[in-house]
Structure formats: structure tokens, C-alpha cells
């Protein structure tokens, strides 16, 4: 059995042009590259409205999209009603802040006012 073994000795040179660091060194703020794109304002997300499904011409898919749209629209309607009722409660019990802590305080206030009814 014969084996051919070849070895090449490479000497390390002082020339660093051949090797570049994998990670670029941190650049100062003035030298950082900037994007040429103009910043666009973020789209505003609205939590109201109805979902209208697009028809694709495939009966099964159209039915599924219609079912999803119907479910979404029912949930959206329930959300809007709940939101209106919370606003009404806050007005009635003078808790007009939008934080959830205020809603908790509002519920405590209601319980305190009606404690005699539940005893």
C-alpha cells in the first residue's frame, strides 16, 4: 500500500493586507453609513372597521375567507360594544382616564357603592 503525502510549508508574513477582520471595527457616529431612503411615517393601526373578503374564484377558498371575515366582524362588533360600555361606566362613575388601573379603581368604586345590595 503506497500513500502519497504532500506537505507545503507556508510562512506567516507580516503583510496584513491579505486578511481582513470578519467584524468591522466600530465606526464613530460621523462615519457611519446612512440610508438613502426617506423615512416614512408608520401606518396608524385602527381597531375598527369590517373585513371584506376578496373572492378568488375557488368555491372552497371563498367560503373559508367568508367564514373568517364573518368571525372577525362579529368579534370586532363585540369589541366595539365592550369599549363603548367601558367608556359609559367611566363617565357614570367619574373615572375618565384610559388606563386599566383606573378601570380597576372604577370597578372597586362600583363595588363599594353597592356593597349593601350584595350583603
TrEMBL record:
Compositionally biased residues, Basic and acidic residues: 20-37
Region: Disordered, residue numbers: 20-56
Name the UniProt record assigns to this protein: Uncharacterized protein
